[in-house]
Amino acid sequence: MLDLHQIFIMQKKALFFLLALCVLGWGITPYGSIFLGLGLGAFFGTYNFWILTRRMDRFDRNLEVGKKTASLGTALRFGSGVAAAAVALTLPQYFHLISTIVGLMIPYVFLFVGAFVSLVKKSSNGK
Fold first, then answer.
1. Buried-state track 72-109, b at ≥16 Cβ within 10 A, e below 16
2. Would the keyword Membrane turn up in this protein's UniProt record (predicted)?
């Protein structure tokens, strides 16, 4: 299975592709606020995944030396999600709230899809 850094690199590539689609959707379709909300949520979701990657590295290093780790940054990631929702609520003429929340979950969907594809590739190579 891929390690967390490889998954994060794939996530960044997928985020750039998604942001390009959001810009196209914003410019071409009449649903600009929905596409901007998706982009905003995906951006903050990727930021949350980056925080998780950093904290997991720190957790692994501390575990190797026998040191305790306080947390995995749950409060910081929760605060980031609240910030994304606050931006969408503050500027509803630009950002759609529901699409912002959906956008926050996109990196985790990418994570599950990547894990599933990796599992399928691994099982097909074993046969």
1. ebeeebeebbeebbebbeeeeeebbbebbbbbbebbee
2. yes
- Tell me the whole-structure pTM to 2 decimals: 0.82
DSSP state of 70: -
Contact 42, 100 (CB under 8 A): no
Can you list the residues of the chain whose pLDDT is less than 70?
A: 1-2, 126-127
Q: Which alpha helices (H) appear in the chain, and where do they start and end?
A: 4-28, 32-65, 74-90, 97-126
| Residue 43 vs residues 37, 72, 115: alpha-carbon distances, Å | 10, 20, 21
**Phi and psi of 64, rounded to 5°?**
-65, -35
